Fold each of these.
Amino acid sequence: MATFLYKLGRLAFRRRHFVALIWVALLTLAGVGAASAPPAGNSSFSIPGTEAQKAFDLLEQRFPGQSADGATARVVFKAPSGEKMTDAGNKATVQKTVDDLADGSEVASVADPYQGNAVSKDGTIAYASVKYDVSGMELEESTKDALEDAAQQARDAGLTVEVGGDALQAVPETGATEVIGIAVAAVVLVITFGSLVSAGLPLLTALIGVGIGVSSITALASALELGSTTSILAMMIGLAVGIDYALFIVSRYRAELAEGREREEAAGRAVGTAGSAVVFAGLTVVIALVGLAVVNIPMLTKMGIAAAGTVAIAVLIALTMIPALLGYAGRRVKPAGAKSKLLGGGRKGAEKTEGRPKANLGTRWASFVVRRPLAVLLLGVIGLGAAAVPATSLELGLPDDGSQPTSTTQRRAYDLLSEGFGAGFNGPLMVVVDGKGSDAPKDAFTDVETQIKGLDGVVAVTPPAPNKGGDTATITVIPDSKPSSVQTEDLVHAIRDAGGDVEAKTGAQTLVTGSTAMNIDVSEKLNDALVPYLVLVVGLAFLLLIVVFRSILVPLKAALGFLLSVMAALGAVVAVFQWGWLSGLMGVEETGPVMSMMPIFMVGVVFGLAMDYEVFLVTRMREAFVHGEKPNQAVVTGFKHGARVVTAAAVIMMAVFSGFIGSSESMVKMIGFGLAIAVFFDAFVVRMAIVPAVLALLGKKAWWLPKWLDRALPNVDVEGEGLRTADERGSGPDEDRELVRA
């Protein structure tokens, strides 16, 4: 592989005009596609195999024309202090609002509060339910404006009015902190390279890659039913890996220049060595993201594939456009250790003292670790273990309007409904009774209603509402607990258990659906899929790393270190978003269960990103060992060449991910924080401390590989042995090189 990538790097350097033209054309094509594509519709949130989804599908079959997936809105009214919603003036205002809403072209129905028993017991709060023919993402702007105008007119009449539901669903905003994250990345790159030109190359290529990826997602969003969150997550991951991959190659290019090589040769060698690490690091990320398909949640699968596509683009750009841009930059990209004049340049790289390279901070740290490996290992493991303790209290759920900021009208409507009708009113359960298999469907409907009324935690049960055929009925159940609580989850299971008794007696099947039941089923499905997903992703990546490192223990250590860092990161997420530690600093207004998708998505992404540092850092160690150095000295050499770059890459990733903490979307906010803290734990504790400590303790055994497996594995030559000249091959002792194959 190193030889092929070496030739690719030199070709891109020589044919830089052609390479640049191709990428600019792709960016233009993707941009035109995004600009001309129809707006994205509502992303499909089907959960195959769950009871809630079966009930939803049954409703569409037995109650045709009711737009089961149509948008909804609850216009909540509160009377001024000392008044009631039943007063003549307030009643007239509400009636006018209902009439105005009913005139909308996309409105399916509007329920009058005074006819539908939608006034609170104390008479101070009422609500009107609005149903639309199309989903929230497909609503015309004029329809949304009409809803907001109707609410504003009622406010002008003296009422407090808020609007809940998904009719006013907005595209998530990431906030200014995203720009700050990119600015921090730019500063880190300038400090790392000591050159504005060298620092600008990774940023430029990352932005081009993300531009192509996100524009392609936007262009395909309508056809593939991709939600707005998909493009945000693709942007988050694409920016981080795009900058990092380019950083690895530019750093190696500067190191090759410092060795005295010509620029085209240096570009070829940089792509052949660091590029090999980039390819395998990118493969682990792609495996982790595409592996999300095992969960069998279409939305999550689409998110993973879209993000994986953006990562693949980042890899291709790093391998081709970076050497092309290096050709354009010429002498403006300085050798390693040399700064531009603007930044006080003049210092020569690779200074030597008494025949040995001058020790940098990475060298000094690695030397300390190999002298005290056991102490460093214990301290790192104990520290991550302590950070992981909160993860034992992990509670999973999906967000509702109650988790939104109090500045939104959806959250204020949620609070008003809780105040007037109880906490469970915001999460009603829909029970669907399929009486086709029963001889007396009406009796079965009544039996289900009676059974539910006898359960604990039930505030109200509506009478069965049969369809035209009389073989299916719906029953609405109002719990006395909020939608995301454990008590509501227990009630859903209790209703399903009671339905089993009714089915055994009457033959009628009882199913529970609705957004609350769907959220519960999603959480359980994700929990069940976590272990198979871990086995698949970690197993495939483990095999891939065996090929890369030609070792059994190094990939095993990499996988175990990842588990430590991801558990510590989950502990931090629980502490902030569930327990409320530092919640004000993070902009978390409402604590509660952790997003159901968070653990499995974070496991996938963090595993892939963690392998970036593992591959880049440890391949330099293996390269030194294969070229003749003793095991401990190879660890120090790997840190000498890689610690500065890995540190910069980690800080950049943390900055980019932290930028998404300012998002208005709770899932994006939580994932941004989780990924940022996971990168911190993995890069600075696992890869910078635990990895060198373990390698120092293992010594030559770390690079052991059975002879039969060595013969069976393909030689991918990540360390660039095939690129060395005859003089370079003869410069080190043979016995250590042979040991790798023993």
Amino acid sequence: MATFLYKLGRFAFRRRHFVALIWVALLTLAGVGAANAPAAGSTSFSIPGTEAQKAFDLLEQRFPGMSADGATARVVFKAPDGEKMTDAANKAVVRSTVKELSDGSEVTSVDDPFKTHAVSKDGTIAYASVKYDVSGMELKDASKDALNEAAQDARASGLTVEIGGDALTATPETGSTEVIGIAIAAVVLVITFGSLIAAGLPLLTALIGVGIGVSTITALANALDLGTTTSTLAMMIGLAVGIDYALFIVSRYRAELAEGREREEAAGRAVGTAGSAVVFAGLTVVIALVGLSVVNIPMLTKMGVAAAGTVAIAVLIALSLIPALLGYAGRKVQPAGMKSRLLGGARAARKAAARPGRPNMGARWASFVVRRPMAVLLLGVLGLGAAAVPAASLELGLGDDGSQPVSTTQRRAYDLLSEGFGPGFNGPLMVVVDAEASDSPKAAVSRVSDEIKGLKDVVTVTPATYNKAGDTATITVIPDSKPSSVTTEDLVHGIRDAGAEIKGDTDATVLVTGSTAMNIDFSQKLNDALVPYLVLVVGLAFLLLIMVFRSILVPLKAALGFLLSVMAALGAVVAVFQWGWLSGLLGVEQTGPIMSMMPIFMVGVVFGLAMDYEVFLVTRMREAYVHGEKPSQAVVTGFRHGARVVTAAAVIMIAVFSGFIGSSESMIKMIGFGLAIAVFFDAFVVRMAIVPAVLALLGRKAWWLPRWLDRALPNMDVEGEGLGRATGSGGKEPDAHREPARV
């Protein structure tokens, strides 16, 4: 592989106009497609194989005009202080609003709160339910505008009016912190390279890659049912890995220049060596993201595949566009150790030349770890273990309108309904009774209703509504607790347990659905899929790393270190978003259960990113070991060449992920924080401390591989041993490929 990538790097450097034109054309094509594509809303939510989804599918068959998955809105009215909603003037405003909403082309029904008894006991709060014949994603802007205008007209009369439900979807806002994250990345790159030109290349190529990826997602969003969250996550991951991959190529290029190689040759060797690490690091991220499809939840699969596509683009850009741009930059990109005059690098270079044998900070740290490996190992493991303790209290759930920022109308409507009707009113359960096989459908439905009334945490059970055939009924159940509580989850399981007994007696099938039940089933499905997902992803990546490192223990150590970092990161997420630690500082307005998809998504993404640092750092160690150094010295050599760059890459990735903590979308905020803290733990504790400590303790055993397996595995040549043959130098560079080092 190294030989192929070496030739690719030289070709891109030499034919830079052609390569740059291709990428500009792709960016333009994706941009035009995104500009002309119809806008897409929130991703449709379906969970194949769950009871809640089966109930929705049954409703579509037995209640064809019901539009079970149609959008809903609750227009909540609150009377001014000292007044009641039943006052004549306020009642007239509400009925006028109901009439105005009924004229919508996509509206199927609007309930008058005074006819449906949707007025609170104290008479101060009322709500009107609006149902549409299309899902929230398909709802036209005109219908949303009409809903907002009707609410605004009612507000003009002095009433407090807010809108809940899925008819209005708040567009996530990332805020200025995302820009700050990119600015921090730029500063780190300038410090690392000591050159504005060299620092600008990773940022430029990362933005091009993200531009192509996100524009493609936007262009296909409507056709493939991709929501706004999909593109946001793809941008988050694509930007981070795009900068990092380019950073490693440029750093290796400067190191090759420092050894006196001619620039085209240096570009080829940079892509052939560091590029090999980029390919395998990118593959681990892609495997982890595409592996999310094993969960069999379409929304999660699309998010993973879209993000994986952006990572693949980042890899291709690092291998082709970076060497092309290095060709354009020419001598403006200095060899390692030389910095621009702007940053005072000439004096630093002279000092470095006067002390050629002085080890850098990475080498000094590695030497310290090699001398005291057991102490460093125990300290790192105990520290991560302490950070992971809160994960034992992990509670999973899905956010509802109650987790929205208080600035949104959905959150204010949620609070008004809780105030007037109780917290459980925001998460009603729909019980579907399929009595087609029952001898007496009405008797079966009546028994179901009676059983539910006898359960704890039930406030209201509405009369059953039958379909035309009279063999299927729906019952609405209002819990006493809020939708995301454990008590409500227990109630759902209680209804289902009672339904199993009823089925044995009456042959009637009882199914629980609705958004609350769907969220509970979603969480359960994610929990059930976590172990198979770990086995698949870690297993595939383990085999891949065996080929990269030609070792059994190094990949095993990498996987165990990942588990430590991800558990510590989950502990930090629980402490902040569930317990409320530092919640004010991070802008967390509402604590509660951790998003159901958070553990499995973090496992996927963090595993891929953790393997990035493992590949980049340890390949340098193996390269030194293969070329004859002792195991302990190879560890120091790997850190001397790679620690500074890996540190910069980690800081950049942390900055980029932290930028999304400013998002108004709670899911994006939580994922941004979780990934940032996970990268911190994995890069600075696991890879920088635990990894060298373990390798120092193992010695030569770390690189042991059974002979039969060594013969069976293909030689990927990540260390670039074949480059000597490719250049015809037998491992040494001919004079034609060298140029005098510039001081």
Amino acid sequence: MSKAFPAATIVGYPRIGPRRELKKAVEAYWAGTSTAPQLDDTTRHLRLNSYRHLAGLGLGESTSAIPASFSLYDQVLDTAATFGAVPDRFQDLYDDGGQLGLDAYFTLARGDAGRQPLEMTKWFDTNYHYLVPEIGPDTRFTLANNWILRNVAEAAEQGLTVRPTIIGPVTFLLLSKAADEAPAGFDPLSRLDDLLPLYIQLLEQLAEAGAQWVQLEEPALVADQAVLASEVAGAVERAYRFLTAAKVRPAVLVTTQYGSLGGLLPILGGTGIDALHLDLVKGELPAAADLAALGDTTLVAGVVDGHNIWKADLARAATTLSTLAATVTRVSVATSTSLQHVPHSVEDEPQLNRELRTWLAFADQKVEEVVTLSRLVDNSPAGSIDAAIAEASAVRASRAAAEGVIRSEVRDRLGSLTPSDFTRVAYQERTAAQETALQLPALPTTTIGSFPQTAEVRSARARFLRGDLNAEQYTTLMKEEISRVVALQEDLGFDVLVHGEPERNDMVQYFAENLDGFDVTVNGWVQSYGSRCTRPSILWGDVSRPEAITVRWAEYAQSLTEKPVKGMLTGPVTILAWSFVRDDQPLGETANQVALALRDEVSDLERAGIRVIQVDEPALRELLPLRKALQPDYLAWSVASFRLATAGATPATQIHTHLCYSEFGAIIDAIDGLDADVTSIEAARSRMEVVHDLQEQQFARGVGPGVYDIHSPRVPDEEEVVALVEKAVRQLPARQIWVNPDCGLKTRGYAETIESLRNLVNAAARVRAQL
């Protein structure tokens, strides 16, 4: 067991590949156009190429500085599969050798015709989503998947020493939910002592496979519950004293990302772990007394931001490292989080403005920053990074003075706002006006916005961007697709229609391309969940709207039908959450700039005759700070920005919003504070859990708890949807309830979508007839 930890490392690296090779390989396997050996060959090359690339960037081939952080779908699912934490409904997935193979793994993630997949929810305060393990008092833990051992072995065959990574035991159980069959009040953390021996077995096997270090990820320990709950502190101490006492094991690095470890630092540092990673970007520099508790444990200082794309302030990072070096026995340099949250390389974006490119650091550039800073802790000559610090400081000064970063007309408009700009007339008055204007039945049906994007639609957009189609030809093709989507909804019997969004590549990027203060990438992909990737836009300057963005498409769709068509906008918080946002001013100020641009769009939609306008905020919960002390300020500005965007609407205009894939109980007051007339919320995969929270809080506005999980290819049958709608009606007044899918349909195919939507409309009609 080696105790020499490298001077420079990263917590994780993008696993999708520079050109989304993982996405394409996995989806080809799902589609049946490739085999398991072909998928394995592609992913093996992707892993090894990443390791070699990182070694070439300065992390070295034999120092354990390179994390083996690859996953076919999700790191939490990987851990559940490794330890056989499988709900009862999936027990038949084990093969004859007691292992969970490739198809079993994907079935847990995606479900099948008769079984719902594991629930999905946000990963801390990021826009990545993980699969939630389900654990009960009788869940049988067993080493059921050996992919982590394979990753170590295949690297060793190529002369590479990598550091295997897996979710730590405390975080794994804290992120799990009680299985359906568990008794009331059951806490998955109570199974810790049953799980720990399996971690010991895994550590032994990793050591035998040649792993010198193992990375156990414990980001859940930065949350308030980890600091305040004595049982969590006790679990941390018990778990890591047990694991470090193993006779045969690699050296143990524990990583804590997305915030401060707080009072758990001295507890964890005293357990005998060999290295402890701290997020020193979102977290505070610990007190000297807490650092002293580390003793000989290496402190891995996360001073380079792994969650955003701006170049590091090397001078500030150097000061932090100097402070730590004066207190701690051993210091290494790292990223604050895994680099899975940022694209691969700025070098892949030559089309970006040259000055803007100098401000940016994607994954590869962040590795280089870590390697540069490591010279401060690896006995390099004094002053060895002075030139790099000076260059980084000059870049920051250039960015602050660049044209468009500060625009007086935007600042003046914000400064002139009054409380009335954030307030609509009373909800009851609006409801009466909307009932008269819209004439909707009980349990009205709608979809969330997007419809499946066919190869033809994507091709038309691509040809238009290349110049192969002129604007008139492109508009004709988009109108033809809108006409098909409107006719389909009419045929299915929906009450409020959408235009299907064929012109939109992404719900945030589409707006970023049409707003000042943004830029977009070509290859800047990051993983959202599973094979789903997105290209976050870059919000670098003050934001304004040069002209209307969505009006012509919504107006055309409305001309095709007598039924109301929803105007579709992405809300200010979600635009921020799913972009890389400037870090030189408070987020609330940036959100209000975006909100004013959207406010203008709402006004233009109203003038075009659009009577229902949806302003999506699926990321409202995602940005919620992990620390409770910071949450009130966030909720205040995030709610205010939504209200600023929508408060100019007339009473007869029905404002919808949409939230998805997060736990909402903690923010129902904030959801109510948005003052939307109707809120649609993910509920299918969690089997309507949110309805109980809404009932408890006496939520009095319109609400559409989703009845169709669009993140799985399975088609919910009519009886299943009826059961979900009936559950909602039992707990909430029927007059409040809308019937809709969980989210947009962009990623689904038309055959499954039509069948699912037909079942949805028929189920709503059946329950409506019983009212």
Amino acid sequence: MVDVQGMTAAATTAAQLPQVLGGAPAAILMIDLRERKVVYANSSAIELTGDRVSLPVDIDVWGDAAGLTDLGGKRMSETQSPLSLVAGGIPVAGEPVAVHDAARRGSSATSEQREATEGRLLWVTGFALSGVLDMPVDGPDDERDLESRALVVFQQLSNTEHGERRRLEVLRDRAVVATEMSFTITDPRREDDPLIWVNPAFTRLTGYPLHEVVGKNCRLLQGPNTDRSAVDRIVGALRRREPITEILLNYRRDGTAYWNQVSISPVFDGTGELVNFVGVQNDVTERVLVEQERRTALADAEEARGQLRLLAEATTQMTGALDVADACERLARIVVPQLADLCAVDLLDRPGSATPVRMAVAARDADDEARLRTLGELRDYRVGAGSDTGAVLAGLEPVLLSELPESGTDRYDAAVGSPAAATYERLRMRSAMVVPVRARGRVLGSLTLMTQHPYGRRYTSRDLHLATDLAGRAGLTVDNARLYETEHAAAVTLQHSLLPALPTVKGLRLAARYLVGMDGNQVGGDWYDVLPLPDGAVGIAVGDVVGHDLRAAAAMGQLRGVVRSYAWDGGLPGSVLDRCDQLVQGLEMAAMATAVYARIEEPDLAGHRIVRYANAGHPAPLLLEPDGTLVRLDRQRSPMIGAVPDFGRRSGPGRAEAEVSCAPGSILLLYTDGITDIAGEDADERTDLLERTVAHLEPGTDAESVVEEVLRVCVPDGLRDDVALLAVRLDD
């Protein structure tokens, strides 16, 4: 038996399925065999002759009026035409005839009309009704008259079928179809438009013999899954006396279902009175099923492409996550609404933990997000403790719940009481999946996906596979993010351990910051230092060793120690950097580094201090004077440490220093290039932003406020490089 349930889904689109015999209803004639006259014609047949003849009319006259010829161009009246054969009681299983409008229109036909219809082909099928109608002798006169009638059907061959080779194939195929074509005739003048004749092909198609259907309406072929909208369209067309073609699900006498293409045409007599409806039925089940399979295959392919797009998008989005919380949030936002109406991501905060933390939720309705968080709190999910989420967290198999009851009495809420049940009710869950978020053999958490009543779909095993794949990718992202956070924290700790605590220096206010960039899981080479010297001066330094690895960090620590050592000896800034350069190159401590070293001398009687400085390829420090004047300390710049072999011994006198007098209330700002050199941005514009920020500081701003304002304005989110910042304010 045909799968009726599978067919029902295609019923609404049956009109789009392939047409077995063409989309337009056929032209139909009835011929009186005793008088060789056309007595009835439907609207399509009347269009062939226009108003040039009135019924009843001789078959040859009708053929000439319709412009019918054989394929050689001879008129029907001049040949042994299919009409003549049918009128002689000889059945015609299918023969081609041509329509020449010039012949039927005469000289009045325009060239456009002749061009539009010249060479049109019709396929003719005809047979006498006598011998196939088993009617009682006392039946109605109209029914007894049918035994002296013949039925002729003209079907048009489309223009695309006119190629010689293609035309022969079409004629051959249609000859086969015509012999199995099912015909019916009804009488609309009688109550309920009953069947008054069916041919043997109808019996073979439906299993109903003639005597069981005569006097009954053709709706006896309908059944429980017949598309009612298609039936309504047929009824409407019959009421309007219009031809119609529909494909609908019918049922044979034994109850088996089949797809039936039905073409119904009204037949009118010479006075325009409706006398019959002629129906042509064809079993198109095979073609419908093929079309359904094609559509299903296309739908499956599109679904597979959609799943691949979702996986690719999820991977891209989660790869760009900054931390664990961001990764979970991105995952939840990706699956809603593409895969779920509701989503919750729960993670165990550490291996061996028994209670997960709800890291992220997402929902079509924003109000449902708060409910999801509330449900997580009320349910108090625990590893292995009486819930699907707990079971998944304990390492058991993923859970697929294709259909959840709409009431709050399901297995979830029976154990947890009314608060969770009320929240459950408001979430309107229909279907759910719970899959583990797993990485490197450990369950890190769970991903819960849900659809909602009334429109959410039911999840299938295919959805479960997709959700499991997504959760696996999320698990790797979460695990990597956790490793990054751990390494990042360790790097920050190590980095800060290499930096000094700022000393308390009389007459100076100091503030410093060290920010680890996004690549901070690898320690860097940025550093700062403040060193009170034995002679009463104060040495300050900022530097940056090239690289972001342990070697750079080690070199930074060594270089800072060397600077402190040479500065402690009382050397001037230029000589301190020269000696550092020689030692670095001699001992191969680092590849290259930039640095600024300055000596802040003791104040004179007016409180002014001389600041001497030397710069080895480092960004220029800034001096903000008490009157708001900003000075860039960029004089006497020299190459980077380690850049020029034997610099200061073979290439000249070495690094020179510059000096500047600073009044009380002045501010010095030293920094590394992480604040100005940012990928994708202009370094000069970043430097201008820094200088404007410092220049706009209020008079009297302390060192801490200077550092905070510079970081607020000049450091972007997602900082990738390390930043060292040192501010020194000279007391008033």
